[in-house]
Amino acid sequence: MSETHTSLQQSMNVRREKLRKLRELGVNPYPVAFSRDTQAADIKSNYEALEGQSVTVAGRIMSLRRMGKASFCHLQDESGRIQCYLRRDDVGETGYEQFKLMDLGDFLGVTGYVFTTKTGEISIHASEITVLSKGIRPLPVVKEKDGEVFDPFEDKELRYRNRHLDLILNPEVREVFRTRARIISFLRHYLDEHGFLEVETPVLQPLYGGANARPFVTHHNALDQDFYLRIADELYLKRLIIGGFEKVYELSKNFRNEGIDRNHNPEFTALEFYQAYVDYEYMMDFVQDMIQRLARSLDKTRVNWGGMVIDLDRPFRRLAIFDALEEALGVDVRQFDESRLRDLARDRGLDTGKAVTYGQLLDELMKRLVEPGLVQPTFILDHPKAISPLAKPHRSGNPELVERFELFIGGAEFVNAFSELNDPLDQRERFEAQAALRRDGDEEDHPVDENFLEAVECGMPPTGGVGVGVDRLVMLFTENRWIKDVILFPTLRSQ
User: Fold this and answer.
1) Which of 159, 191, 324, 407 lies at 20 to 30 Å from 240 by C-alpha?
2) pLDDT, tens only, 309-352
3) Could you tell me which of 470, 433, 416, 49 has the C-alpha nearest to residue 253?
4) What is the Cα–Cα distance from 309 to 304, expressed in whole angstroms?
């Protein structure tokens, strides 16, 4: 047994013994409830009104300083920390004996009057204490003195695997997830305000679709049938448009059986919304307004993201994909075929890897040479048909282009949107072309979804559709560069 493990077991044994002694004193160390009347932050913000008044608080003990017949501790609740001063003469012999059996990490209820110590710290002079929860596993030790933190709990791997400890010991992390909640709430409110209906579509799907990605496969025992965790909810939402709803949205958990990196987690949150009788140009204006209003609601119209200062208050730039490639490469690739694109990639030192088709090569050039330079918000629009199987042909009549845009901020994609393809014959041809690529070994291409095609054959109105990466919005507005920092429980390899 390791020395660390031995030390942990010894500490836990000491705590178990204290737990036993509390029970011997007739104390229930795990009461069912506790009535408090205020929180730490409220006391500090309303000190003048509360000075000398009796308050009752509850929280986790985050510091302890015992001095014989008197002690200090800091309690941490959701709003912050407050110091408590305890004297044996005030809380009584039994109460003080209970307090002596408390450790860092335990929960305590305190009633007392508000005052300021000689050092100027707003505190509570305790008259009564209540044991609320006795922990038997010690927290990692984080030392603090005069407002400075020593040995912080900052190991990323440990924090992700023990998010409860991360939230306890790094209170600023809680603010990230409060902001996440505000962002999701805003998105719902914005769409509701614009007449959209929130809906729910299946997570378990008999056939996956709506994106080019590898799915997770599971098996339904009663039906004796394989199902897929959804990679997107697009095809179901468009069926609702076909069915007569004109504005729908879903905030969904999607799952893609792919790699994990700075911007990707196998389980992620997406927002998709669809509106009948509009196109991708309308949706560009809509998306810009939504994100700018979100930024203003958070008071974050300028963000510093990985050293990049991003201005969200200005009009977002709009740039056709081939113009963006020409800007980055100094070469007009509009007339390039697959062979010339491959030669260009090779000349630029790119390993094209699994990219074998024209569309895949073009996508690879964008990802590697263009997207990292799109720092300020930029709509990249008018994509090649070869990489956009669900988008409407471009109104210009160019048979190789579709009406699609992606929004890039800080070098990352945040939004993908189309004038949705509603020609059932064209849609079938594109699905079949994608299926042919699948047969040639590309597992990420789109399968033929006969149920969806039958729905489109019933008639689908002109429609604009948008997909938004919610996790990336949270990353941007909390100024985090790693997706794991904005997902409470990210996907990790088993220990």
Assistant:
1) 407
2) 999 999 999 999 999 999 998 999 988 888 898 888 888 888 77
3) 470
4) 5
Label the pairing between strands 225-229 and 143-145: unpaired
Our separate counts of H helices and E strands in the chain read 15, 20
On whether the CB atoms of residues 129 and 86 are closer than 8 A, the answer is yes
The CA-based angle 357-362-364, given to 5 degrees, is 95
- pLDDT value of position 1: 45
Q: Give the Cα separation of 260 and 124 in Å (integer).
A: 47
If we measure between CA atoms, which residue out of 138, 135, 131 comes closest to residue 22? Answer: 131
Tell me the per-residue pLDDT of 30-53, one tens digit each, with 9 for 90 and over: 999 999 999 999 999 999 999 999
CATH C-level class of 3-139: mainly beta
Q: How many other C-beta atoms are found inside a 10 Å radius of the C-beta of residue 380? A: 23
- β-pairing, 217-220 with 80-87? unpaired
3-state helix, strand, coil in the chain (%, to 5): 35, 25, 35
- Where in the chain are the domains? 3-139, 173-316+376-486
Strand runs (DSSP E) across 51-207, as ranges?
54-67, 70-77, 80-87, 107-116, 122-133, 143-145, 148-150, 197-198, 204-205
Cα–Cα distance for residue pair 267/272, rounded to 1 Å: 16
For strand 197-198 and strand 247-255, is the pairing parallel, antiparallel, or unpaired?
Answer: parallel
CB 468 within 8 A of CB 270: yes
Can you read off the two tokens belonging to residue 338?
């697959």
The mean per-residue pLDDT over the stretch 384-394 comes to: 89
The fold adopted by the segment(s) 173-316+376-486 is BirA Bifunctional Protein; domain 2 (3.30.930)
Q: What are phi and psi of 418, to 5 degrees?
A: -135, 155
Token readout for 476 is 């941007």
CA dist 262 and 490 (Å) reads 12
Residue carrying structure tokens 């008639």: 459
The contacts found for 280-283 with CB under 8 angstroms, 24 or more apart, are 280/381, 280/403, 280/404, 280/405, 280/417, 280/418, 280/419, 280/464, 282/464, 283/405, 283/417, 283/464, 283/465, 283/466
pLDDT digits (tens, 9 = 90+) for 166-203: 999 999 999 999 999 999 999 999 999 999 999 999 99
Distances (CA, A) of 359 to 53, 363, 382: 71, 6, 13
Q: Tell the residue number behind the tokens 């409220």, with chain if given.
A: 42
User: CB-hemisphere CA count at 13 Å for 402?
Assistant: 25
Query: Cα dist. 374→308, 312, 329, 471 in Å?
Result: 11, 13, 14, 19
